Amino acid sequence: MTEEVDPTERARRRRTTGTSVDFDGRRLSLARRLRRLQRTTLAAKTTVSAAAITQFERGTSRPTNTVVAELALALGVPTGFFQRGRAIEQVPASSAHFRSLRATPAIARDQALAFAEIALAVVDVFEQYVDFPPVTEIIDPVEDEPSRERIAELAAQARAKLGLQAGPVPNVVRLMEAHGIVVLRLPQDIDRKVDAFSTDVGSRPLVLLSPSKHDKARSRFDAAHELGHLVMHHEVEPGSKIIENQAHRFAAEFLAPSAELIPELPTRVDWEALLKLKAKWGISLKALIYRAHDLEVWGDYTYRNASKQLAVQGLPEPGPLGLPESPSLLGRAASLLKDAGIDSTDLAVASRLTEHQINEVIEAGSDLKPKLRLAIDPNEH
């Protein structure tokens, strides 16, 4: 029969194990949010209250060594993870532009933000060893309601700053990485309600793309959309439909400038011509017919007719463009370090992150490699 111990006695026993002297409450918050746990849920897995966990995270009190061990077990990290190490930049929700903020549950958003914080910490430790491309100055804040022409002008200026000539963008993700922007795919365990988002609170801008979009055209548009936020919405409160629409318009102009696209658009619904434009510009048929209407090449009737025909086709659209564009910056950096004899174990020691966290971020920033499926015939002799 288990001896029942009252709360006062439990607290006395915890105190006898000593207080953790170098406990970092920010790291506790980070590990909890990565696990999608409310403080009350985490408290239920330990012998302390939710109020105590709040105090630990805020740094107003420190846990005992026994409680640190309980927290580590509940969160699946080593006790050393909570020790003070390299500072981890906080990414507040007010500094992250989520594509679907209102549709994203707070706990899912917090998990994604926690991953962004881990990613920035990993980038920070990488930069102790590897020189990443310098960050190109692209910020050009907009007034409250810029005109269509002003956003087109900003997109053209961004193209010029990033060294683009006329014509399609060969690879949006690679272009961003070449100019110092870190691009990652969100891990598979992040809630699917979290779409692409971006932030510029760290030492370099960070863009996180959805792993569930296997359509190249959509992923290119997402990347260009986040680039629009980085250009136009520095220190702008995220989440409004207005700024999301602004980023949409920026992406459309960045990928296919109106002055170049208008002469190429068919004046009627011509799917063969539209498929050729899709392949050339790397944008979806849905985006093309929207642009044809928005740029007044098509009237309302033609646009509605085309939209209905496309809806009947369903997803995926005709004319697939292949695999989504994939980030490679961190994967290449990891390869360089490996050649120099530095692996994820060394990076974990340097950053006091876990090897799993290091490897997850590296994978998120590495080329997608198609997997071969090995089939075994159970009837084979």
Automatic annotation (TrEMBL):
<dbReference type="InterPro" id="IPR010359">
    <property type="entry name" value="IrrE_HExxH"/>
</dbReference>
<comment type="similarity">
    <text>Belongs to the short-chain fatty acyl-CoA assimilation regulator (ScfR) family.</text>
</comment>
<dbReference type="GO" id="GO:0003677">
    <property type="term" value="F:DNA binding"/>
</dbReference>
<protein>
    <submittedName>
        <fullName>ImmA/IrrE family metallo-endopeptidase</fullName>
    </submittedName>
</protein>
<feature type="domain" description="HTH cro/C1-type">
    <location>
        <begin position="28"/>
        <end position="82"/>
    </location>
</feature>
<dbReference type="Pfam" id="PF01381">
    <property type="entry name" value="HTH_3"/>
</dbReference>
<dbReference type="InterPro" id="IPR010982">
    <property type="entry name" value="Lambda_DNA-bd_dom_sf"/>
</dbReference>
<dbReference type="Pfam" id="PF06114">
    <property type="entry name" value="Peptidase_M78"/>
</dbReference>
<dbReference type="InterPro" id="IPR052345">
    <property type="entry name" value="Rad_response_metalloprotease"/>
</dbReference>
<dbReference type="InterPro" id="IPR001387">
    <property type="entry name" value="Cro/C1-type_HTH"/>
</dbReference>
